[in-house]
What we know:
With about 160 residues, this protein is mostly helical. It is about 80% helix and about 0% strand. The protein has one domain. The termini are far apart.
Amino acid sequence: MFQLWKARRGRRIALAILRPLVEGTEARLGRIPSAAWHDAYIVGFLSMLASLEARAALGGSIGSLALGLIQCETIADLSGEAPGIHGEEIMNLSTEGDRRFLEGCSQAAIFHVARQRSRLGSTAVPGDTWESCGCHLQDDLLQLWRDVFEERVAALL
């Protein structure tokens, strides 16, 4: 029961982070088409980012069932589609080791680290080229979102 509570809380956290970004993308590009929500890269990116953000916020261990629910329910909520479809896609793409899915997961990890740095308001890494001003970090983060998510969606329009 505790894992289901974590899944629900984790999904809310992931949506609080992802929804404004996705809505910004839709404001710039128009509605994201249904096919894009099933693209292997997009599925990998969103599912991994949802997991990473939930883990960072909840701390401790999150079971695989809870992580699976966070992933598929987050994408379902963003897309307006049924979570079961996305859950099956995530499982199949992961099991198959789909190259584009794994690339999306990798890019999500990069975005997550950048977001954590931005949230802290400092680079936290000596010699990093990011400015220490939070406004620059936010600009960089938005540009990174455009590079790793929005450009992929635009290519599918």
